[in-house]
Design a protein that fits this description.
The complex is a heterodimer of chains A (about 90) and B (about 400). Chain A has about 90 residues and is an alpha+beta fold. Classes of the chains: A alpha+beta (about 90), B alpha/beta (about 400). Chains A and B meet through strand 4 and strand 5 of A and strand 5, strand 6, strand 7 and strand 8 of B.
């Protein structure tokens, strides 16, 4: 399934784009697709075992994937996956 | 939960509300003529007690707007001193305040904005020892802190005490805001169960922040706090607002309360913990110590060695920082490229690594050591201390 991965500015520089076209049937596959194409981005999206971090939240459209199966969450054509890493500045 | 439901939790009941003087009614006239606020709403604001944690970037618009709006009692927690680099965004403080405590500066400014505000200041870091004692006296807490340990501390304290936590956080051009820790809403740990390892996420001091961004996000936090006090509108409970100032995009995503959350779900966290340890700060320091003492050189020693030409100076900062300031004789090899450019270095000479403050150059030094370099030294305090100790014409940033 074609989908779009949206990156915050802090990660976008590792992929030279804020929006990346990605493909896969699950969120994990979308992330793996982006990770394979942008090796510097890869460790910022998931750990070495391919699992999500507790401090990087993914939203499939507007829903937190952790409540829909995590990286196993099913992706539909045209879905938007947004990465929201923790920031602490104030 | 609607704001109306929260009303009874955060404000005094209607018959116990304080009176407003004719001067106050005039001062707040643009509020009281809004039917949704009215005289009763303005009295609720006067009765409210709001605690701001941090008098910096987010705390500045928060302090100014909440005071102007007539919030009757504002508590302010901060232990910092006004620095010249704060003034690009921290509007509570002015040039004349550089060197004063932020609380002294904030007190003067807030009193000028609205002398009716009762201000309580806490010149301390918020800690596991003092947080519950300070927070318990307030209706609403606003998180304007700048580090992960304090954010988790504020969260857990608010959950334990049942206080709404108006959250905001910023980095460069982007920000987040939400309202946590209401009776049935999610908390900060539902969003981020655990923090990133120390050093992974740069602070505003390390990575920078657009000066108006805390203005945007802090003003949103102030708006949420006022809505909670008035019991109007739809607060950011169960929603996370994402602000992108560069593309001028605002969007909200759904936040859910995590039934397994140890803070607000299972309530396994029954008392405040050591948040420095929870965030891995002492562990990271111990690991650094275990890696061995860093061979170091002071700025004055470096200046002598540069004159003699007996050392190669490698600047591992970013090109945009090199544009701001550099030490004569240095060569730029940004940290991220060091591992790929080792062949450019002469391992038969002494190599000094330098960055802004000494942290990134320490990482570069470890990379060189791992690659077998033995004649490597870290410039203590980086270019900042070099400017202080050797050449004040080099700008600090």
């Amino acid at each position: 399934m074609p989908a779009t991965l949206f990156l915050p500015a802090v990660l976008a520089k590792l992929a030279d784009a804020k929006e990346i076209p990605v493909s896969g049937t699950t969120v994990g596959e979308l992330v793996a697709d982006a990770a394979a194409r942008f090796p510097e981005l890869a460790p910022r999206l998931r750990d070495t075992d391919g699992n999500p971090y507790a401090y990087v939240t993914f939203y499939l459209n507007d829903e937190d994937i952790r409540f829909n199966g995590g990286f196993s969450a099913t992706v539909n054509d045209g879905d938007e996956l947004t990465v929201v890493p923790a920031i602490a500045g104030g | 939960m609607s704001a109306a439901t929260l009303l009874s939790e955060t404000s005094a009941t209607a018959d116990a509300l304080p009176d407003l003087s004719p001067e106050e009614i005039l001062r707040y006239s643009r509020h009281v003529i809004i039917p949704d606020v009215g005289l009763t709403g303005q009295k609720k604001l006067k009765a409210a007690r709001v605690l701001l944690i941090g008098a910096g970037g987010l705390g500045s618009p928060l302090g100014l707007y909440l005071a102007a709006a007539g919030v009757g009692h504002i508590g302010l927690v901060d232990f910092d001193v006004v620095d010249l680099t704060n003034l690009q965004r921290q509007l509570l403080h002015g040039t004349k305040d550089v060197g004063r405590t932020k609380l002294d500066s904030a007190r003067d400014r807030i009193r000028d904005v609205n002398p009716h505000v009762e201000l309580t200041t806490y010149e301390t870091a918020l800690t596991s020892e003092n947080a519950l004692k300070i927070i318990k006296d307030y209706d609403i807490v606003i998180d304007g802190t700048d580090n992960f340990p304090t954010r988790y501390l504020v969260n857990d304290a608010c959950v334990l005490l049942g206080k709404p936590n108006v959250y905001g956080s910023i980095y460069r051009f982007e920000g987040q805001a939400s309202v946590f820790s209401t009776e049935n809403g999610p908390c900060y740990r539902c969003l981020y169960p655990s923090p990133p390892p120390p050093g992974l996420v740069p602070s505003c001091a390390e990575g920078g922040v657009l000066g108006v961004l805390p203005g945007l996000v802090g003003t949103i936090q102030a708006t949420e706090a006022i809505k909670l006090i008035l019991g109007i509108g739809e607060p950011l409970i169960g929603r996370l607002l994402l602000v992108d100032a560069l593309d001028t995009k605002f969007r909200t995503v759904k936040l859910r309360k995590n039934p397994a959350c140890p803070s607000c779900g299972t309530r396994d966290i029954t008392q405040l913990i050591d948040y420095q340890e929870f965030c891995g700060v002492p562990q990271a320091a111990a690991a650094e110590q275990k890696a061995g003492e860093l061979p170091e050189i002071t700025p004055r020693e470096l200046a002598e060695r540069l004159k003699l030409g007996t050392v190669d100076l490698i600047d591992v900062r970013e090109p945009h920082e090199w544009e701001i300031a550099r030490i004569d004789g240095a060569r730029l090899i940004p940290l991220a490229t060091v591992a790929d450019r080792l062949h450019e270095l002469d391992r038969t000479r002494d190599i000094v690594l330098q960055c802004k403050g000494g942290v990134r150059s320490a990482k570069a030094l470890r990379t060189l050591q791992a690659a077998g370099f033995t004649r490597v030294l870290n410039l203590v305090g980086g270019i900042t201390r070099y400017s202080d100790d050797v050449d004040p014409t080099i700008p600090k940033y």
